[in-house]
Write a structure and sequence with these properties.
There is one protein chain. Among the domains are: about 90-150, Alpha-Beta Plaits, CATH 3.30.70; about 165-240, no CATH class. It has 10 helices and 8 strands. It has helices spanning about 1-10, 20-25, 30-45, 65-80, 100-115, 135, 160-165, 170-185, 195-210, 225-250; strands at about 15, 50-55, 55-60, 90-95, 120, 125-130, 145-150, 255. Strands 2-3-1-8 form a 4-stranded antiparallel β-sheet. The radius of gyration is 20 Å and the shape is globular. The two termini are about 20 Å apart.
Length: about 260
């Protein structure tokens, strides 16, 4: 759903009829019940807002959803798969939360992972570069429970050791190789009904990858790091699918100006 909204709604003053969203996701084998349930949850979470016209219900983005999708767009198209501009700085976040705030602890960890942090040791997370942690954690109201520092590695600690300890590079590489196995072929997903379906699946796969990628410094990664090739494959296919997918979307989507 985030891939669909990011491609066809973000940056446009429109809301989309629920029935046409259902038609789009039917191409992916998603049931009407699942789509309606997802839309309802997103409304409840403040990500979508309803607009009624006659008997039809349309769904548009809230400012919160637009901010999340814009961040995803930057990750997909601007950040790049490899960090070639790292200056040696690390952002360090330490926290200790009582058991009574277990759900907050879960949200905190999720936000740190999304922002590219890895767990160095119990309660201590690190990420390459300078991160705006205040913005990342603002909704959680953590107060004195969190400490944030920026630092550089000093002997006997090496940055390569920090990468090895805090990040599972083998697992990250495996995810990129799985992406390549699926998409780096002469005819990706031949069972998909059309290029709109392929476009949404491609973007979803890639967004999942970049969401889990901490954007580690290139100097501490193998020369044959699979993310480099995977990024080229994604961009090539995304450009190839866009024209035909756009034509199909224009015929399927019922839009309401908002």
């Amino acid at each position: 759903m985030f891939s669909f909204l990011g491609i066809y709604v973000l940056g446009r003053p429109v809301a989309i009829y629920s029935g046409s969203i259902i038609d789009v996701f039917a191409r992916l084998g998603v049931s009407e019940e699942a789509v309606r349930s997802t839309l309802a949850r997103m409304v409840k979470r403040g990500l979508l807002e309803r607009h009624r016209r006659g008997r039809k219900m349309y769904f548009g983005l809230t400012p919160r959803a637009s901010a999340i999708l814009e961040d995803g767009r930057r990750r997909v198209w601007e950040t790049g798969a490899v960090n070639r501009d790292w200056d040696g700085t690390w952002t360090i976040v330490g926290f200790s939360l009582p058991d009574s705030r277990r759900s907050t602890r879960h949200d905190l960890r999720s936000r740190l992972i999304w922002a590219g942090f890895g767990l160095l040791q119990n309660g201590v997370w690190i990420a390459p570069g300078v991160k705006d942690v205040a913005q990342i954690l603002e909704p959680l109201d953590l107060g004195d429970h969190v400490t944030v520092l920026t630092a550089r590695a000093a002997k006997p600690t090496e940055s390569a050791d920090l990468v090895r300890k805090a990040f599972d590079t083998d697992q990250i590489a495996a995810r990129y190789r799985a992406f390549l196995n699926r998409w780096d072929t002469s005819d990706p997903l031949p069972s998909a009904p059309d290029d709109l379906a392929r476009q949404l699946l491609l973007h979803t796969d890639w967004l999942q990858l970049v969401r889990q990628d901490p954007h580690l410094p290139a100097e501490h990664l193998p020369a044959d790091w699979p993310a480099i090739r995977a990024e080229r494959v994604f961009q090539t296919l995304a450009r190839a699918y866009e024209p035909r997918a756009g034509v199909i979307a224009r015929t399927v989507l019922d839009e309401l100006a908002v």
